[in-house]
Amino acid sequence: MRGASGSILASCGGTFPEPGRGVAYPFVESPNKTPTSGREIDVVVVHTMEIAERPDAAAICARWFATPASQVSAHFCVDAARVIQCVREKDVAWHARGGNAASVGVELAGFARQTAKEWDDSYSTAVLNRASAVVADVCGRRRIPVRWLSPDDLVAGRRGITGHAEVSKAYRKSDHWDPGPGFPVQSFLDRVRRAQAAEA
Ligand SMILES: [Zn+2]
């Protein structure tokens, strides 16, 4: 990803309130999506951007998704400081081949190779907190259970939260393994539950 400097928010298309409690994030629209007039969402897929822990990671990721040639996108990009939305929830983002149709994709700043210890540093802690609030909101509005789905769960059509790695194993259309074996699944789910409890 070249050309990382500068603010893409200057060309931001404005905010788009999702239905429900009127959440709005800065919206940097990606052309890499399949529009629908509305769809069932069963799964939230967690990714790592493979972008370093830097203050503008979400903006860099959003700019990549805004590039037609990238042919990829996700609904939300999250770094330690902000959330940027790139695809409306009703539209299908191109983030996890085989598992896109009924899912929402959330990209976290960081790398799949991060160790558990690296996920525990101050930057990643901020990313996890911010991302868990996004996921809590989506799950709350869509009545998606806060549980981690295995590849078998996905194939069985269960609803919940999972990683790109699990989608890859379930549908065998990708070899992506993010957010990686060091990703703190249980603590992330706990954060999502706490965010929902705080909201309630
Ligand atoms: Zn991914």
Describe the 3D structure.
This protein is of the alpha/beta class and about 200 residues long. The chain has a single domain (about 25-200), classed as Lysozyme-like. It has 5 helices and 7 strands, in the order ββαββββααβαα. The strands form 2 sheets. The protein has a 5-stranded mixed β-sheet. A hairpin with a 4-residue loop joins β3 (about 75-80) and β4 (about 85). The longest helix is centred in the middle third of the chain and has 21 residues, at about 120-140. It starts with about 30 loop residues before the first strand and ends with a helix. Residues about 1-15 have low confidence and may be disordered. The site of zinc ion (ZN) has 4 residues, from loops.
Concise overview:
The chain is of the alpha/beta class and 200 residues long. Helices cover 29% and strands 13% of the residues.
